[in-house]
Amino acid sequence: EWITGFADLIDWLEAAEAFEGTQAARLRAEGARSPEAAQALWRRALRFREALGSVFLAKTERRSAAQADLATIHAEYARTASFGRLAPTAEGYEWGVDANAAALDAALRPLASSALELLTSSRLARLRRCGNETCYWLFLDETRNGSRRWCEMASCGNLMKVRRHRAKQQRNA
């Protein structure tokens, strides 16, 4: 677990460019003023992540998601909806987070929004679980023919190819 508290959550969101530095600073300051509320929000973020992971895993296994997990996702989306703002872009418009929001709940808006965007898009059909049986990472297979098998070629892909090569050598020995 790399996100061990509220500050780590905000750091991660800032690094992922979900927030600008000034908004991240406002959220950090609000978290410092209300440490118990910040800790509670961090725990909600972890529950949200677990629910989302369970829903995504169910999709990769072609089974129905648990209603409790869907309810958790829905609740966070609804709870953070008031922090969404429509903003102009070069191509048109996009939903973002109110840049002036300092309420702690605003921290989960980019996560909830991004999750719902994927869950309701055609891209969800390309969600896969890594082909390495010891890896539990999920990824979007955006190859043209949908043939990607591993979360990352540099780690699991290489490992699996080395294992297959060694097994083949042992059979031929």
3D structure, described in words:
This protein is mainly α and 173 residues long. It has helices at 6-15, 21-33, 35-60, 67-80, 109-119, 153-172; strands spanning 84-88, 93-97, 127-129, 138-140. Strand 3 and strand 4 form a beta hairpin. It is elongated and about 65 Å long.
Helix-strand makeup class: mainly alpha
Q: Detail the poorly predicted runs.
A: none
How many separate helices?
A: 6
CA-atom Rg in angstroms: 19 Å
Mean pLDDT: 90
Task: Give the oligomeric state.
Answer: single chain
The amount of helix comes to 40-55%
Report the end-to-end length measured between terminal Cα atoms. Answer: 43 Å
Classify the beta-strand content into a percent band: 5-15%
What general form does the structure show?
Answer: elongated
Main β sheet profile: 2 strands, antiparallel
Number of strands: 4
Reading the helices and strands in chain order gives HHHHEEHEEH
**What topology, given as strand order, has the largest sheet?**
1-2
Q: What's the quick description here?
A:
The protein is mostly helical. Helix content is 54%, strand content 9%.
SSE topology:
Blueprint: H1 6-15, H2 21-33, H3 35-60, H4 67-80, E1 84-88, E2 93-97, H5 109-119, E3 127-129, E4 138-140, H6 153-172
Antiparallel strand pairs: 1-2, 3-4
Helix pairs in contact: 1-2, 2-3, 3-4, 4-5
